[in-house]
Amino acid sequence: MRIRIKHDTVYRYETPIKSAIQILRLTPRNHEGQFVARWTVDIDGEARVMRGEDWYGNITHSLNVDGPVSEIGIRVSGEVETEDQAGVVRGTVERFPPALFLRQTRLTTPDAALADFAASATAGPADVLGKLHALMNATHDLVNFDTTATDVVTTATEAFHAGHGVCQDFAHIFCAAARSVGIPCRYVSGYLMRTDRVEQDASHAWVEAYVPGFGWVSFDAANAICATDLYVRIAIGLDYLEAAPIRGSFYGVSSETLDVRLFVDGARQAQS
């Protein structure tokens, strides 16, 4: 699959701000089943941009803007070639042992009810891979997709009890549940090429869990499938805050509005 992505993000400030600092995690890396053919990051206006990596090996861009400024525009675009790996992720940058991803965070710490749900969902299958598939399906059945029910600071426990959420909430619930039964699990941010539309409201999120004998395997509870060649993997972390496409702050007294336009399309490559 050759996937084309154009992702525009514009921050607007009612009153010009004095400065802004942002960390971008918007650039994919190559690994087995994913090759970045072309990728650019463009910033509108005067800004200091430094490319680097975070502690997980995610590619980052540090953005510093001096004001006064009323608008910051960020555009990423490119093409990525993908191959279906049956959900198995190999050839990625791995700086920590899988056990690190047993660590819970404020966004993923389960309460007793969520821990009981995890234990019940994984009780049947004897093998880890089977448990994870059962957990994925149980999470998918539990949560109704709803873009109005949660926000970026909603915890896994809150989304679990609400029974509504977006892909971020499915991923947080899955991470919380998997870790509670002793399976390392991490949050993944990226893009999903949908077959029903090109323009999308936001990027996508899923998880990777560690399976002995396989390594890291991807699970998308929002769609109840393992990642295929329709997915472009960007960043990982313990939760959304560590893999968020853009995080930052500004200095000044103002209100901020956000406008996002995302287009993802592509075509399957001819087989020789």
Question: Could you explain how this protein is built, in words?
Answer:
The protein has 272 residues and is an alpha+beta fold. It has two domains: 2-81 and 246-266, Immunoglobulin-like; 84-243, Roll (C8orf32 fold). The chain is 18% helix and 44% strand. It contains five helices and 14 strands. Strands 1, 2, 3, 4, 9, 13 and 14 form a seven-stranded antiparallel beta sheet that branches. A five-stranded antiparallel beta sheet has the order 5-11-10-8-12. It has a two-stranded parallel sheet with strand order 6-7. Helix 3 (156-162) packs across helix 4.
Tell me, rounded to a whole number, the average pLDDT. 95
- Cα shape: globular
Would you identify the regions where 5 or more consecutive residues have pLDDT less than 50?
A: none
CATH architecture of the largest domain: Roll
Provide the number of structural domains: 2
CATH class of the largest domain: Alpha Beta
Tell how many strands the DSSP assignment holds: 14
Number of helices: 5
The largest sheet, given as strand count, sense and whether it forms a barrel, is: 7 strands, antiparallel
The portion of residues assigned to helices is 10-25%
CATH topology of the largest domain: C8orf32 fold
β-strand percent reads: 35-45%
Oligomerization category of the chains in this entry: single chain
What would you report as the Rg, rounded to the nearest angstrom? 19 Å
